[in-house]
Amino acid sequence: YAMLLSLIFLIVLVAAVVGFVFRHEIKTNFESNLNLALRDYNVTADRHSEAVDTIQRTLHCCGVQNYSDWEKTEYFTQKGIPKSCCKSQDDCSEEDLKDPSKAKLKVFVDGCFFLVTSTMESKMSVVAGMSFSIACFQLIGIILACCLSQHITNNQYEMV
């Protein structure tokens, strides 16, 4: 049992170190994947398009860096900026969303990349605190399992 807990502890420790060391690469990959999701938006109405809509609605943002990122997509040429960027769903018409100058007044102008990364970074202290407390409990479990094993081994020799 102590060996199993030690293995889990080491896996979590390695994952935390790798996540910390490669955090900049994670950001870069997230940005490139968000750009790909915008480029392929609603081509197949897949989960990536749903994720983009959810992010834009929840964080009140539009595009990767700003709303003008949508102008480079195939979706913009057909339907304009997506409705998930609208400040008010009732006040956004398709004609307004196809015209960038009118759309600027009706959609969120801030990009999603900065908002997502800043939200993740602000929550990292909570995640780190919870991970630290779980690691402490694991270490206590490892120590207690070793003590129990030692106690069982000592008692076997006394019974003879």
From TrEMBL:
TM ranges: 126-149
InterPro entries according to UniProt: Tetraspanin/Peripherin (IPR018499), Tetraspanin_EC2_sf (IPR008952), TSN6/7_LEL (IPR048232)
Gene Ontology cellular-component annotations: plasma membrane
Gene3D superfamilies: Tetraspanin
Record keywords, A-Z: Glycoprotein, Membrane, Signal, Transmembrane, Transmembrane helix
SUPFAM superfamilies: Tetraspanin (SSF48652)
Domain of life of the source: Eukaryota
Span of the signal peptide: 1-19
Membrane topology designation: Multi-pass membrane protein
Localization terms from the record: Membrane
A Pfam family reported for this protein in Swiss-Prot or TrEMBL: Tetraspanin
Role played: May be involved in cell proliferation and cell motility.
Protein name as annotated: Tetraspanin-7
Source species of the chain: Semnornis frantzii
Taxonomic classification: Eukaryota, Metazoa, Chordata, Craniata, Vertebrata
